[in-house]
Amino acid sequence: MSTTTLPARAKSSGPGGSRSRATGGKKGLAKALVPFGYLSPTVILLTVLMVIPIVMVIGYSLMDNVIMKKNPQFVGFKHYSDILSSESFWTAVTNTLFFTGVSVVAHLILGLAFAMMLNTDLLGHKTKAIFRTIYVLPWLFTVAIIAVLWRLLLEPNGVINYLLTASHLAGSQIEWLGSPETALFAVTFINIWSGYPFYMTSLLAGLQGIPGEYYEAAQVDGASAWQRFTRITLPQLKPIIISMALLDFIWTTQQFALIWMTTGGGPLGTTEMLSTFTYKLAFTKYQFGAASASAVIVLVISMVLAFFYVRAQKARD
């Protein structure tokens, strides 16, 4: 018995089929746009708070008589040329490098020393808790409190001078923040005192994450305390140290509040930093174009430092 096979009926491509495909396409497009909808508030905020101000500052740096007059003049890179040839700018750069370099190195040394002391088994839990509280105290104060506190301590009739003269270490009262010879060292010391707890807490967490078996095996092999420190502790802490040092370098180069509240960049510009130099151009001399050019230079420096920080973070991961 033969079987007859009927040809399959062609699918209808009428209005109903086209409508379903169009609806499916719209749903797919809407689904693809969902992630962008979640990202849009962040993108809008970044654009309003970062991109637009940066573009405006770059534009101001190429103009003269901005903000103060209605018709600013385009001067190109004149402000950049004036700033880079200014002796005051290079003084601020030198002071910033000294202030930042000494602060970062001292933060690392003090933070590592205190972290290792708090991580040792030679101290009891109560003793460690007491020292941990004392060492973290500088981190609990705001910049304003730190500035006022140290201005009182370092004034000519303050506690520091009293102790020095009473112990015959100084023959007369010293103007720590008012003398060109000591002002930069004084503000650097204040910044070191206020910043080392950041290193201490981070390095203490890193030390507590190093397995004790490493030290036990090294001790069995006859390694000295210095060898254990240089061949176990430092290599294990190296990623943390690099990341913190770069981050601290970025923060310290942008330090403004502490300098402004203690010395204001004086005396005679001996504590002038890039931040205070830019601030004075804008709000003391009202040279907003030159101040914008200085701000762009600082921004470029910060971006270079941020690049190395991100690179170090990727290497750490």
Automatic annotation (TrEMBL):
GO CC, one annotated term: plasma membrane
Sorted UniProt keywords: Cell membrane, Membrane, Transmembrane, Transmembrane helix, Transport
Keyword flag Calcium: no
PROSITE patterns: ABC_TM1
Localization per Swiss-Prot or TrEMBL: Cell membrane
Primary site of residence: membrane
UniProt topology in membrane: Multi-pass membrane protein
Protein name stated in the entry: Carbohydrate ABC transporter membrane protein 1 (CUT1 family)
